[in-house]
Amino acid sequence: MLHVGIDDTDSLDGGCTTWVALRVIEALLPDYNLIGAPRLVRLNPNVPWKTRGNGAVAFTFGRGAGERQQVGALPGGLVTAHAEAAPAELDAGELLERVLAVVCEEAQPSAQPGVVVSEVRPREGLYWQGVRGIVGEAGLREALEGTAHAGLNGGRGLAGAACALAWSPRSGGVVERCSWELLGYRNRRRWGSPREISAESIAAVAEIEGTFGCHDPDGSPAMVPHSPCPVMWGLRGLRPEPLVTGFSVLGPERPERWLLWQTNQATDDHYRVELPAGGEASLRLAGSVATPPHSRRGGHRFFTFTFEGGELECAAFEPSGDFRKVVDQLVPGDVLEVCGSLEAGVLKLEKLRVVTLAPRQRKPPNPPCPECGARTHSAGRDAGYRCRPCGVRLPAPVPEAVAPTLVPGWYDPPASARRHLVRPARLMEPAVAVQAAAGPPGSVPLVQ
Ligand SMILES: [Zn+2]
């Protein structure tokens, strides 16, 4: 069998790498079988040249064996994937030529596509480099050795294509470190026109077992893109079957094609647990609140967070909506885990976990004067209270304990403000078995 990786076929002004991949599959299905589901691999969201989602794709072609399952539909028929591959003599160079023909036809003119065709997948370390950092020249050269590959317009996509090939949904014995997205695609004539998908039909798929990211708490759709791209909607979930059996309620506009993708979305794979030497990174850090949160122009919230490696400022920006109200309720001493992207010394929060809450206190109301009954006034910092008419002084009363308004747990911004790689807060709990031996050293288990 042959593994195919493709990246950087879209650009900031539209297009979609999964669409190009779908067209490749469509062109090659008469001659090859798909082995396993196609894979959509999100890479480092902090790279400066990223398109909206920084997603690369990979799939495997061969002569199918074993069980077959439907993973999509085209105007011409079903797309099925085999569980296994039978031995077959395949020509990587010839397959590369055929993939390139489709990529040249479908890719955006400003894109820098990369295509890699290989009998073996690159080492998994390459994926971790690609999702948490930047793949260097040497690492890429090594990964491409012995493969058939091509880069167009500069071929920046070669690194992403190789990284996508290196990703595998590692089975931790209990939970697979992956999720699924069923993407519906529109007829080419409708690209750029408003998508006719009702809020009711979105609410219906949000009820399907294991789906996530369908809509925001206020009901506004999060699964329907606004860009003029071929994607009509993306239905995300933890398991594939409920997506395939359940998506048909979405409408009234119907997809012309659909394809089920196995993805690293919602895995938190992009988080490192230590500050990098410099530059930008996605981080997951344990520590505590050092300063009371404060608001700045535009409705953004900031607080100082202290952790073993030092201190940094955390921010919840205006688009994070009600998540800011969670931040407002933090007090110094609250023990947190924070997840976010570090840019210019500020950690832009993607979610946070309240681990334990510090005691909350409130200054009691000013005591009345024991002589005349009038309300006393503060006599200055640490100087107690004083009755102005009588001159009576009273000591400052002990602060009152207040019940916290927050409860321990995970909190995050609405789905529409969430990055693809971020696991939604509600999937972080209740605790599921911790995966052993998944990910590289220093990685954080998917669910704790
Ligand atoms: Zn008085």
Plain-language structure description:
This protein is of the alpha+beta class and 448 residues long. The protein folds into 3 domains: 1-268, Alpha-Beta Plaits (2-Layer Sandwich); 281-356 and 403-418, OB fold (Dihydrolipoamide Acetyltransferase, E2P) (Beta Barrel), CATH 2.40.50.1010; 364-398. It has helices at 17-28, 92-106, 125-132, 137-144, 157-166, 199-206, 240-246, 323-328; strands spanning 2-7, 33-35, 39-42, 55-74, 77-86, 114-118, 148-151, 179-185, 211-212, 231-237, 257-263, 281-289, 294-296, 300-307, 310-316, 335-343, 346-356, 360-362, 377-378, 385-386, 393-394, 400-402, 409-411. The strands form 4 sheets. Strands 1, 2, 3, 4, 5, 6, 7, 8, 9, 10 and 11 form an 11-stranded mixed beta sheet that branches. The protein has a 5-stranded mixed barrel with strand order 12-14-15-17-16. A 3-stranded antiparallel beta sheet has the order 19-20-21, with no helix packed on it. Helix 1 packs across helix 2 and helix 3 (125-132) crosses helix 5 (157-166). The longest helix is centred in the N-terminal third of the chain and has 15 residues, at 92-106. It is elongated, with a radius of gyration of 26 Å. The chain starts with a strand and ends in a 37-residue tail after the last strand. The model is unreliable at 431-448 (pLDDT under 50). Zinc ion binds at residues 369, 371-372, 374, 387, 389-390, 392.
Feature tags:
448 residues, alpha+beta, Alpha-Beta Plaits, OB fold (Dihydrolipoamide Acetyltransferase, E2P), 3 domains, 11-stranded mixed beta sheet, 5-stranded mixed β-barrel, 8 helices, 23 strands, binds zinc ion
